[in-house]
Design a protein that fits this description.
Blueprint: E1 6-9, E2 16-17, H1 20-32, H2 52-59, H3 64-74, H4 80-100, E3 105-106, H5 108-119, E4 123-126, H6 133-138, H7 142-149, H8 162-165, E5 168-169, H9 183-192, E6 199-203, H10 206-214, E7 218-222, H11 228-233, E8 238-240, H12 248-251
Parallel strand pairs: 1-4, 1-6, 4-5, 6-7, 7-8
Antiparallel strand pairs: 2-3
Length: about 260
């Protein structure tokens, strides 16, 4: 097995507990209680029916319009193709407001993992379908995090943002195919200058795991939403609830293992 030389990070749900799920849920509720009230009884939607599991299985990791259509199809909303445009726009406006208001947090385990693997010599890239990922990453101060965590690293400098920390930024680009197609991850590996079998992909969504595997890469599934079974079914090579469980020392020898194994 080749030595791992690159790590590719999804953003929402992996690096950041972002407001995307909240924006999707609340913007659909607003529509159903206002402009779309007349069709509500023809759907299976209710505020309680839009669960974290629905978001993870049908929407997470997909480009905006694909996510909008997936949700509307799931809730049997009439004319989903046309309504997806309005739904996607409303969601986008809401998520930008939430991000600017600071309604998100970075996952400490993911930041620790990124620092550790970069200091071990791996190249790192962020690769999200979201057009808002770079805005999120630019607002996270990695130097502040390292200081708070007592982390001493030669790769951390004053004023460093998480966005600046990555060797390649592939987030928010317009690719012809969205996840579960591997296009974004293949492009990420190329940007890092590594072969697909030398790359690890960090994903919390089944579509992202499927994309990584379709691209010939190793996939670490991160079960942030009690979805271990879903990620395992998508053929993740390993599933953890926190990246602190990954044996980072083993990665440089091409071995994927947990610290407790």
């Amino acid at each position: 097995m080749p030595t791992f030389r690159g790590a590719i990070f999804d953003v929402d749900g992996v690096l950041v507990d972002s407001p995307h799920e909240k924006a999707w849920r609340e913007s659909l509720r607003e529509l159903m209680e206002s402009d779309w009230a007349g069709i509500r009884d023809r759907t299976t939607w209710s505020p309680e029916a839009f669960t974290p599991q629905v978001y993870q299985e049908y929407m997470s990791g997909k480009p905006r319009m694909n996510g909008a259509r997936a949700a509307l199809d799931y809730f049997h909303v009439p004319d989903p193709e046309q309504r997806a445009i309005e739904y996607g726009q409303r969601k986008q406006e809401m998520v930008v407001r939430l991000i600017k208001a600071g309604d998100f947090t970075a996952y400490p385990d993911a930041l620790r993992f990124a620092i550790t693997v970069k200091d071990a010599g791996l190249l790192i890239a962020d690769a999200s379908s979201s057009k808002n990922a770079t805005l999120l990453l630019s607002k996270i101060r990695l130097d502040t995090f390292a200081k708070e965590q007592g982390i001493s690293s030669p790769s951390i400098r004053p004023g460093l943002t998480l966005l600046e920390y990555f060797d390649a930024d592939l987030s928010g680009r317009d690719f012809e195919h969205g996840k579960p197609d591997p296009e974004i991850f293949v492009a990420s590996a190329q940007a890092l200058g590594v072969e697909p079998d030398e790359a690890i992909v960090l994903e919390d969504a089944t579509s992202g795991v499927q994309a990584a595997k379709a691209g010939g890469m190793t996939a670490i599934g991160i079960a942030r939403a009690d979805d271990t079974a879903l990620l395992a079914k998508a053929n993740a090579d390993i599933v953890v609830t926190t990246l602190d469980d990954i044996d980072t020392a083993a990665l440089t020898s091409g071995r994927l293992a947990t610290r407790t194994a």
